[in-house]
Design brief:
The protein has helices at residues 15-25, 63-70, 104-115, 129-142, 176-186, 203-219, 265-273, 293-301, 372-375, 382-398, 407-412, 441-457, 507-524, and strands at 2-10, 33-43, 51-60, 75-77, 98-100, 121-123, 223-225, 230-236, 239-245, 249-252, 256-258, 278-280, 283-292, 317-319, 325-332, 336-339, 349-352, 361-370, 402-406, 426-427, 430-432, 467-472, 479-481, 494-496. By secondary structure, it is an alpha/beta fold. The protein folds into 3 domains: 2-77, Alpha-Beta Plaits, CATH 3.30.70.2700; 98-279 and 479-524, FAD/NAD(P)-binding domain, CATH 3.50.50.60; 282-472, no CATH class. It has a 7-stranded mixed beta sheet. The protein has a 5-stranded parallel beta sheet with strand order 7-6-5-11-24, covered by helices on one side. The chain is globular and about 70 Å long. The two termini are 38 Å apart. It binds flavin-adenine dinucleotide (FAD). Residues 100-106, 123-126, 151-154, 157-159, 161-165, 229-230, 259-261, 264, 267, 330, 338, 340, 350-352, 498-500, 504-508, 510 line the site of flavin-adenine dinucleotide. It comes from Blautia difficilis. Residues 282-475 form the FAD-dependent protein C-terminal domain. This is NAD(P)-binding protein. InterPro entries: FAD-binding_protein, FAD-depend_C, FAD/NAD-bd_sf.
């Protein structure tokens, strides 16, 4: 196979133009070949000449000869390295592995275990995706929160009502990242996600995908139970024996995967009481900011709209004078700010979008890292208490509605009383307020400094009527459930996994961690 990199074409190019260019680069214009796009990135440095830059793998006759003949640093021979799932091990299993949580980590772990013949049982505290969707929409409309089925909990996990960004910075020598993308495509995602630099799915697509993956797991011998909250784990001499569901039912268990996500605070408390080793972990808190998407497009593309490129994304960071870093996170082009709460009397926001990314506004979190020194209190769960306190203040400020403030008022530390030109795109009711009052001073000051500095890079970012809403507190896990070299917790049979355990951040890395745990179980245990 020949790999061509740095192949550039205008963003409006056709398939025929791409194929012609491949033939030209290989100096084989009339030869027949097959090809696979491996990567597509966008070069917007010249606003009037925006280009896609490709990496492409080509299969063609006489590859060695051609590669030598073209004598081009961007053309080289390469070999395919397929992903390999390990063969089953020898240790017998008395009962199927139990996966706790059906977020990306649990779902992908379950899929690979089912495919390898382990018949996993997946326990999920929330509802199936279609029922969950109705429950979530009812919450956004009427404010009635279901603490077990909401934006954080239910089939597909925290990522279901999201922008579905799939890029990750996790290094991947084993090919798990590509596996995740392939599984998504098989389950209904568009093929482009396999090569786009910043692939995304959108809530409308994600709901169908998680349902399809569930059906596939069931067809391969796995099973699901919804409204099945794990309320206790029972051990004997440091070995897992039983799992308690919904405070009453007992399930015998030899292996369980703890893929409970970063918001399962009650579950963290139970695990702590049960003696699982865990430690507090730094994470980040702040607010969401909204701007007109046309303003962001203008900055990146030099035009308010581009039919080939869709809504533009940005990523910004700033080091503050107080030494803290402030940065954009989970940016949702053409998206919505959502009420993403999961506990009564506490309010957290996040961002989502649909596949089309066609709302009026761009939003992203403006967040600042906080460390165990900021949390106060004691014990490994003190980060959870820190989050809870911020969320309690946000809830009280808006009496359950999302508190919103204009950036101009934020800088004056005063409540907003009227919107400017930017009108919120929100899922859930909102109310104008002084959101800054919710934040610790250092975080509030850092965000002001950060937004002003981002205004120097993106025209209008620091406009007076940009909207801030809060509180953004569920950026990553406030705790790490430690695992050893065999990826086990201190309890034999219990595998911490995904974002909640502190080993992933985002949909793709959580899914990759799920695959990694499935591989580990497979290497050790015999299948059925
Ligand atoms: P989770 O997805 O949190 O899944 C954990 C599951 O465990 C949940 O379904 C929960 O109900 C279940 N559970 C918890 N406790 C129990 C229990 N005791 N018993 C049974 N089940 C239990 N990431 C991105 O990469 N891109 C994005 O665009 C993006 N946007 C987001 C938008 C929103 C609104 C939110 C909330 C998150 C977003 N994220 C995004 C983050 C992403 O969703 C998470 O990183 C990812 O879902 C973590 O996967 P996970 O499987 O580890 O945990």
């Amino acid at each position: 196979m020949i790999r061509i990199s740095q192949l550039k074409l205008p963003v409006s190019h056709t398939k025929e133009q791409l194929e012609k260019k491949i033939g030209k680069v290989l100096k084989s214009p009339s030869a027949s070949f097959s090809y696979e796009i491996r990567k597509q990135s966008l070069d917007c440095r010249h606003k009037n000449d925006k280009m896609f830059v490709y990496t492409i793998d080509v299969k063609i006759k006489d590859e060695q000869k051609i590669a030598k003949r073209v004598n081009n640093n961007n053309v080289m021979l390469t070999a395919e390295k397929p992903y390999v799932f390990p063969e089953p091990g020898q240790e017998p299993l008395s009962c199927p592995p139990v996966v706790i949580g059906s977020g990306p980590a649990g779902l992908f772990c379950g899929w690979y275990l089912a495919k390898a013949g382990y018949k996993p049982l997946i326990l999920e505290r929330g509802e199936e995706a279609d029922k969950r969707q109705k429950t979530v929409e009812n919450f956004w409309k009427n404010g009635i929160l279901d603490p077990d089925s909401n934006v954080q909990f239910g089939e597909g996990g925290a990522g279901t009502f999201s922008d579905g960004k799939l890029n990750t910075l996790v290094k991947d020598p084993y090919g798990r990242n590509h596996e995740v993308l392939k599984r998504f495509v098989e389950a209904g995602a568009p093929e482009e996600i396999l090569y786009q630099q910043k692939p995304h799915l959108g809530t409308d697509v994600l709901i169908g995908i998680v349902e399809k993956m569930r059906h596939d797991i069931e067809a391969m011998g796995g099973s699901f139970r919804f409204r099945a909250k794990v309320t206790d784990l029972r051990f004997e001499k440091g070995v897992l024996k039983e799992i308690q569901v919904n405070d009453r039912e007992i399930i015998p268990a030899q292996v369980c995967v703890l893929a409970v996500g970063h918001s399962a605070r009650d579950t963290f408390e139970m695990l702590y009481r049960r003696g699982l080793y865990m430690e507090p972990k730094a994470f980040a808190v702040g607010l969401r900011i909204e701007h007109p998407q046309s303003m962001i497009n203008m900055d990146l593309y030099g035009e308010e709209e581009n039919e080939f490129l869709g809504a533009a994304a940005y990523k910004v960071t700033h080091k503050c004078e107080n030494g803290r870093g402030v940065y954009s996170f989970c940016m949702c082009p053409g998206g919505y700010v959502v009420n993403a709460s999961s506990e009564p009397g506490r309010l957290a926001v996040n961002g989502m979008s649909y596949q089309a990314r066609d709302s009026r506004n761009a939003n992203s979190a403006m967040i600042v890292t906080v460390t165990p020194e900021d949390f106060g209190g004691e014990g490994p769960l003190r980060g959870v208490e820190f989050q809870r306190e911020l969320e309690r203040k946000a809830w009280e400020l808006g009496q359950g509605k999302i508190p919103v403030q204009l950036f101009g008022d934020y800088c004056k530390n005063q409540s907003s009383t009227a919107l400017g030109e930017v009108v919120p795109c929100m899922k859930g009711e909102y109310v104008l307020a002084n959101v800054r009052s919710v934040l610790p001073k250092a975080v509030g000051d850092s965000i002001e400094e950060g937004v002003r500095s981002f205004g120097k890079r993106i025209t209008g970012f620091d406009r007076e009527d940009a909207l801030l809403s809060g509180v953004e507190s569920r950026t990553s896990s406030p705790v790490r459930i430690t695992r050893d070299s065999e990826l086990l917790s201190n309890i034999q049979g219990v595998y911490p996994c995904g974002e909640g355990a502190g080993y992933a951040g985002g949909i793709t890395s959580a899914a990759m961690d799920g695959i990694k745990i499935a591989e580990t179980i497979s290497k050790k245990y015999r299948n059925f």
